[in-house]
């Protein structure tokens, strides 16, 4: 399909239809290479013509000093710099044989007439290069005196002023860096009054691809430098070095996802729903914060969710007048901080301070010394839970006795030892809860977790993520739960339909995921004292289902060593 030139603004009626092929939604279309343009230099853009071939087509080829050629100001500046490693051998070839393929340029006077104020006044040179930036750079580095150039100002009279063929020439040889690609696409939209669909049709690129590229312009300047540019085309050692250097950088897709979720910078005409906060210092801080989380190993979606949760938590704290603290610094150590942890609704209470936890949620603390939780009480509370048993049975396999005697004697003994220490009203009832009350909280928490897990059971993660989940389950013994009949039955209750035919890799992934998810739930429901497996499970639910733990669950998580 030949790339079509756009109509001039106001040139065609809104009722006229384009005859070019519509962009397809399939992945093949989004990955298709753009086709040659239709400008005067179209064959130069996508086919390397020798001097003889160019002259055979009737083109006038001039021998011009590369020092007189000015790089196009809208092209990627990196294309005018020679890679000393010369990965594709261009520099070596130019040193040995000179520039043998023609380049294309326009006179400076014609360029400045069509692009006023685009060239700095102190720029030296007589011609503005349209294609051949890498060959110019190699010629300068090699000390070549002249290079073959086709000069024709008529290209600037096209509606795109030569940009389409420059874009296609870049794509045909060494692709533009993601940010340079985004800048050029934005120029098409702004200068030619195009929308994304029209631009995609013109370049032979799908609209979603255009959208993803443009979104990179919504990255803050420090993050633009962190976007991976391209793969090294040299030897294995160079590729290994490049891979290591890119380890803490953002892939183009990751960068696009981050920029779309947390846009920063000025509003662009192609944005459908600009964010009211996107040009604020707070948004800049959020983008940088998300990037730090990504470098620490978080998925982009997880990092974005956490940043948004932190934003919401700060707003809630400000509205309630709660001071945000570092619990360890505020209370002296983590053990003392845990004694002041407050799990009930703190609305209206005085003496409340908060911290933002590792998931971005608020953790409440009461600064009243009388509100400290007695460690012995916490121990008695765990003993009460232990009496309830689990799915696998224990010393006492009976179900929790809701009407049985309360453990008042234990509490009384503990309270007697603390007779001189006043206990506040809000905390005393919580410490003296009967096992049946705690059992109810456990049941409610399990019900909530299962509702979240049900939404995930048919959404298996990527293989590498599933592999890590299974590794964790083997390491912590959860695999015994996941491989039980209880797990399969629970997964079926959530909507999983097992199959006897596991020859398909996809079927095995679905089966393993459903059992792993159910195994984690059984391990959480059966445990009266949570540990690392339960923390991993809650994190999984938070990351994949936006789950927020109940007060009972948060209390268990806080007591994990």
From TrEMBL:
Residue stretches of biased makeup (Acidic residues): 371-398
Domain ParB/Spo0J HTH intervals: 176-230
Record field: compositional bias (Basic and acidic residues): 230-249, 412-421, 434-446
Residue segments, region Disordered: 1-42, 230-256, 366-447
Classification via InterPro entries: Chromosome_partition/occlusion (IPR050336), HTH_ParB/Spo0J (IPR041468), ParB/Sulfiredoxin_sf (IPR036086)
Gene3D superfamilies: 1.10.10.2830, 3.90.1530.30
Pfam families, A to Z: HTH_ParB
Protein name from the UniProt record: Chromosome partitioning protein ParB
Source organism phylogeny: Bacteria, Bacillati, Actinomycetota, Actinomycetes, Mycobacteriales
